[in-house]
Amino acid sequence: MARVPDDLDPVIHAPARLRVVASLAALDRGDELAFPRLRKLLDMTAGNLSTHLRKLEDAGYVQVTKTHEGRVPATYLALTEHGRTAFAEYQAALMDLLKGTR
Amino acid sequence: MTTDPAGDPAAAGRPADAGLDPAEMLRMLREQQDAARDATEPDGRLLFGAWGLAWLVGYLALWSTARTGGLPAAWAGWVFAGCIVGAMAFTIVHSVTRTAGVRGVSARTGALYGWTWFLAFLALGVLLGAMGNAGASPEVMAIAANGFAALITGLLYIAGGLAFGESRMAAVGGWMLVTAGVAAFAGMPHTYLVMAVAGGGGFLAMAGVEHVLRVRRRTEGGGQGAR
């Protein structure tokens, strides 16, 4: 079976970030997920998840919204259109690999 | 799974999954998305199941006592009310717990949708009260109560199907409109039996369909983008 080559999108071609993007892509367009829910879903430490989110934010794939709920600070995450496209292209590239057309 | 050494600049961004082939990676992505949906969206099987049981048990209680006495017994009315309140409480708790931490379009749509149910049945209660005051017979009241309840349920399921892009929800709504017509023409006491079997049974059948589709999608591996 062919290995996944290195020329796939490097920003999301790292298991942890891929899982972050896949989870956020499961949300409907226009929805955001609170940081603690995402952290629990991925079973990552807060620091680890923050690091990956920063990379994804820098690449323009994830939108990070910092807000307050009452007096408690809250962070919400959503995939940008750019991020959705990147994820779709990544999946399509994997499908192509699977079919052997790449 | 969190083995990516994020803090290591040399390794960051490089594939740490050298052992995975494309098929495994696609499966991993699909499982992650399923897990994300399970964590953030209500489970259709549970909601259809709860309402199916509530209608089946509640309306059967009304039917079984109306069949002998002409009108449902008081205890049957309480059983029915208990079933409806129970299903309502379950729906609210389940939906609110599942969607906690999600905000945006679907949260606003969901809240509005929930309130529409509440207001619609409040209006139905007022309407039935007015009909009673105007001298409607118990038989007319029973037909109106069942027919309008199924009508509201049918329309709101269709509306929900449109709002959430869930075609199976809209299909249940269509079936409930059929149920409304049949329940109205069945007359006393069989209108209750129609509500129990066609209405409650319809919900339960859809809970079964949801379950089969879910198992099939997750074992076959499904296509990309399949929900």
Brief characterization of the structure:
Chain B: Keywords: Membrane, Transmembrane, Transmembrane helix. Chain A is an alpha+beta fold and 102 residues long. Chain A has helices at residues 15-25, 35-42, 46-58, 81-99; strands at 31-34, 62-69, 72-79.
Describe this structure as you would to a colleague:
The complex is a heterodimer of chains A (102) and B (227). In chain A, 50% of the residues lie in helices and 20% in strands. Chain A is built from four helices and three strands, in the order H-E-H-H-E-E-H. Chain A has a three-stranded antiparallel sheet with strand order 1-3-2. In chain A, strand 2 (62-69) and strand 3 (72-79) form a beta hairpin. The longest helix of chain A is centred in the last third of the chain and has 19 residues, at 81-99. With 227 residues, chain B is an all-alpha fold. Chain B has one domain. Helix content of chain B is 78%, strand content 1%. In chain B, helix 6 runs antiparallel to helix 7 (190-220). Chain B is elongated, with a radius of gyration of 23 Å. The interface between A and B is large, with 47 and 38 residues.
Extract low-pLDDT stretches of chain A. none
Strand-pairing-aware structural class of chain A:
alpha+beta
Q: What is the overall silhouette of chain A? A: elongated
Distance between the termini of chain B: 24 Å
Instruction: State the helical fraction of chain A.
Output: 40-55%
Strand ordering within the main sheet of chain A: 1-3-2
Named at the architecture level, the CATH assignment of chain A is Orthogonal Bundle
Could you tell me which chain pair has the largest interface and how many residues each side has? A-B, 47 and 38 residues
Distance between the termini of chain A: 13 Å
- What's the rounded overall pLDDT mean of chain A? 88
